[in-house]
Write a structure and sequence with these properties.
The chain is α/β, with parallel strands linked by helices. The chain has two domains: 344 residues, Up-down Bundle (ABC transporter transmembrane region fold), CATH 1.20.1560; 202 residues, Rossmann fold, CATH 3.40.50. The chain has 18 helices and 13 strands. It has a five-stranded parallel β-sheet, with helices on both faces. Strands 3-7-4-5 form a four-stranded mixed β-sheet, with helices on one face. Helix 2 packs antiparallel against helix 3. The longest helix has 55 residues. The chain is elongated.
Length: 584
């Protein structure tokens, strides 16, 4: 999880149609394409069936109200039975469509979530995004929430639009036929307008759509911003939970509260803007919707009262058809808030996709420190000058070679780039110049100053990154005793956040136990004993040499006492430090 509150998330520059296609088509062309397409076709077919039922019920209106007008008792009861049949058919289709829709949504979300997780973890893109200060804030939210929101919103909007298009096609024919021609006086002559009620519905809907877009357009950007601010507020609270002890020791509750209040204030400020915009949209939509009840009666009144070409049933059928056409043409108006939310989700996922692609391109781009596999089982660092993304050089050239069973201590002033050297060897950092040949052996383990302990059982945390079932309980217990943690042996099956349960020194001891279980050939330790006293530090180094005699060790540390546990030292010097003069 990253926090980039200072950075304003940028929206994708490409068109919305291209963005939607880019997010949607991969699933329907994936290894699940046939089941995905089959479900989509079935859902669309049932949507067509629903419109077919609506057309039948519209025709039923004419017959039913005519029966009422003519006091036709037999036809009345027959039409009641007909309506019941169509109603049950529509209900069955709606239930089946709901089941297939949810099944499609579930499968689509599983596939798309897996794809994003793969892309996020592949080539350590999660690290690259954080390292480069990406504008893509809160990737966890985008995978966990935005993917689900996009799929659900897309499905509803597509089906709503499809239903509207089919309704317009079906009921426009009915409305055109029923409304007939209307003579309109114009400049002293009469102009006959065929299907006049259809044209009234079109003009009414187009005018309303234009106005609603003019009123509600800012809502898209506001919703985009709201999701980012909500995630940043939530992230601040997660940070407090993860760092509860340091905050408590500092007594910094008031400072944390200021952070919470500031971030929540931004949430509320943006939300007020959303409220005001939504009130305007809802106000107009309600006025538009209420007027749409009266408009068809006003439009049909001349034909009904003056020409008397309508019976009551024909009037009601015409009004019903007008309502369906007008409602379908007004889909954009009725769905505007949903479209704004959906567009914000599209933008967030698109920017996330762009950031992932940029991270992968950065990882594969030529240049920087060349890292390759050595021909022999040796680590060779040749004239490596570490740098920053902006091209600034941090260090002077670094040179050393290390073979199996050898050890080297890397020293240098704080901030010179010692940890960055480890990141470069691990393939995480490519800024700079020079070459590194890494050992051909695959068993490499890095121990940072603050070990990572995954949430789960102590057995899992101790064996990490290996599988917890790869070692017996006796082996894990022996490793914990060897590093001075006998009191944890009986807690292997406890499931908790061990990073908050254990002290920093205990966490570093767990990392050494992890080393015994994983048995690496190459061990890189970045101040891995900084939280321990010198006596404990010496005991752990001696234990490593006894239990893992063939391991090659590269350590970073500041204590002079560490030198006796290594064959030699390598001093890293900042680029700004003058080069020593060569002896004449």
């Amino acid at each position: 999880m990253t926090d980039t509150n200072a950075n304003v998330a940028t929206k994708p520059k490409r068109g919305v149609v291209r963005s939607i296609w880019r997010l949607t088509w991969p699933y329907f062309y994936s290894e699940q394409k046939w089941s995905a397409r089959g479900l989509a076709v079935a859902v669309i077919a049932l949507a067509v069936f629903s419109v077919f039922i609506d057309v039948k019920i519209n025709a039923w209106y004419g017959r039913f109200y005519n029966a009422l007008q003519e006091y036709d008792w037999a036809t009345f009861w027959w039409e009641i039975l007909v309506f019941t049949g169509w109603a049950f058919a529509g209900l069955a289709g709606a239930v089946l469509q709901l089941y297939l829709r949810l099944l499609l949504l579930m499968r689509w979300r599983i596939w798309l979530t897996a794809r994003y997780l793969t892309d996020w973890l592949r080539d350590r893109a999660y690290y690259t995004l954080q390292m480069r200060g990406s504008h893509t804030d809160n990737p966890d939210q985008r995978i966990a929430e935005d993917v689900d929101a996009y799929i659900g919103q897309t499905e509803l909007l597509v089906l709503g639009l499809l239903d509207s298009v089919m309704t317009i096609v079906s009921f426009s024919i009915i409305l055109w036929t029923l409304s007939g021609p209307l003579a309109v006086p114009l400049f002293g002559t009469e102009v006959t307008v065929h299907g006049y009620m259809f044209w009234i519905a079109v003009v009414y809907a187009i005018g309303g759509s234009f106005l609603i877009h003019w009123i509600g357009r800012p809502l898209i950007g506001l919703n985009f911003q709201q999701q980012r601010l909500e995630a940043n507020f939530r992230y601040a609270m997660v940070r407090l939970r993860e760092n509860a002890e340091p905050v408590a020791l500092y007594g910094a509750e008031a400072d944390e509260r200021k952070i919470f209040d500031n971030r929540f204030a931004l949430v509320i400020q943006n939300f007020w803007a959303i409220i005001i915009r939504q009130v305007k949209i809802v106000t107009f939509s309600n006025i538009y919707g209420q007027a749409s009840v009266i408009v068809p009666f006003l439009a049909a009144a001349p034909t009904y009262f003056i020409t008397r070409t309508f019976q009551l049933g024909g009037l009601m059928q015409t009004v019903s058809a007008f309502g369906r056409v007008q409602s379908a043409l007004s889909w954009f108006i009725n769905a505007y808030i949903s479209i704004a939310n959906w567009r914000a989700t599209v933008d967030r996922l698109t920017t996330f996709t762009d950031a992932l692609e940029e991270a992968h391109a950065t990882d594969q781009a030529p240049g920087g420190v060349a890292v390759a596999t050595a021909a022999d089982d040796r680590l060779q660092v040749r004239d490596v000058r570490l740098g920053l993304p902006d091209g600034t050089t941090l260090t002077q050239g670094i040179d050393f070679t290390l073979g199996r069973r050898e050890s080297v201590l890397v020293r240098g002033p704080s901030g010179v780039g010692k940890s960055t050297l480890f990141r470069t060897i691990a393939g995480l950092w490519k800024f700079g110049s020079g070459a590194i040949d890494i050992p051909s052996s695959k068993r490499v383990l890095f121990l940072p100053q603050r070990p990572y302990l995954p949430i789960g059982t102590l057995r899992m945390a101790t064996a990490y990154p290996a599988r917890p079932d790869g070692n017996s309980d006796a082996e894990i217990a022996a490793a914990l005793r060897s590093v001075g943690l006998p009191h944890l042996v009986d807690r292997l099956d406890e499931d908790r956040n061990w990073a908050q349960t254990l002290s920093q020194g205990e966490q570093q001891r767990v990392a050494f136990a992890r080393t015994l279980l994983n048995q690496p050939d190459w061990l890189f330790m970045d101040e891995a004993t900084a939280a321990l006293d010198e006596k404990s530090e010496a005991a752990l180094y001696r234990m490593l040499r006894t239990r893992l005699p063939n391991v090659a060790i590269v350590s970073i540390g500041h204590r002079p006492s560490l030198a006796e546990f290594h064959d030699r030292t390598v001093d890293i010097r900042p680029a700004s430090e003058p080069q020593p003069l060569a002896a004449e």
